[in-house]
Amino acid sequence: MARIVITEFVSLDGVIEAPGGDEDFTDAGWTFEISRGEDGDKFKMDEAREAEALLLGRVTYEGFARAWPTRTGEFADKFNNMPTYVVSSTLKNPQWKNTTVLRADVVGEVSMLRQARGGDIVVNGSRQLDQTLIEHDLVDELRLMVFPVILGSGKRLFGKTSGKKRLRLESARTVGDGVAILIYRPAGTA
After folding, report:
1. What is residue 87's DSSP assignment?
2. How far apart are CA 172 and CA 145, in angstroms?
3. Model pTM?
4. 41, 79, 95, 169: most buried by Cβ count inside 10 Å?
5. From CA 14, how far away is CA 131, in angstroms rounded?
């Protein structure tokens, strides 16, 4: 069975909007202002190497589909060649190779995807999808790269849930200029 792994760049106040730029957000590209250092870069590269597939919301998918096919190198090669699943009711003809559109019941389709695949299915960005997966207890691991900045506004990772979602901290370390890498897993029932 596959694991669903959400991985996010997040500010101290929970903002995940436009960390790499390319959006009409006041602080787009905010992660580029703070070095994550060699260890942070290695963490992201190792994460990409271990991923078996990507699972994205439509907006993140469209940004990735514009950016990654024009890039080269090991990271880009991995993103451009692994299976990508995009949750969308509006995307008609995905152009990025190896893309499958999930249109129906997100919870049901992701549950079936977990059963059908092995390895890590990594979710980048995709705030609305993240919140749906968290709400329905479909997240096996949550990887946060927390940047030491308060943005004050923007789309935040966590939204309203129907109840408490208890997590267990698996690891924590600091890289670069004070960027914290926090890895959580569901704590299970007490």
Report:
1. E
2. 10
3. 0.93
4. 79
5. 13
User: How do residues 79-120 score in pLDDT, each as one tens digit?
Assistant: 999 999 999 999 988 989 999 999 889 999 999 999 999 999
> CA-CA distance, 118 to 82, in Å (whole number)?
13
Q: How far is Cα of residue 153 from the mean position of the Cα atoms in its chain?
A: 20
Are the C-beta atoms of 79 and 55 separated by less than 8 Å? no
Cα(25)–Cα(39) distance, rounded to whole angstroms? 28
Q: CA torsion angle for 58, 186, 184, 44 (degrees, to 10)?
A: -40
Look up residue 79 and give its two tokens: 């993103």
H helical segments located in 16-161 = 37-50, 58-67, 74-81, 106-116, 127-135
CB 87 within 8 A of CB 57: yes
Q: What is the model's pLDDT at position 190?
A: 42
- The CA distance from 100 to 30, in Å, is 30
**Residue 147's CATH number:** 3.40.430.10
Into how many domains does the chain fold? Answer: 1
What number is the average pLDDT over the span 166-190?
92
Separation of alpha carbons 55 and 36, rounded Å: 24
Residue 158's domain comprises 3-186
Average pLDDT value over all residues in the chain? 93
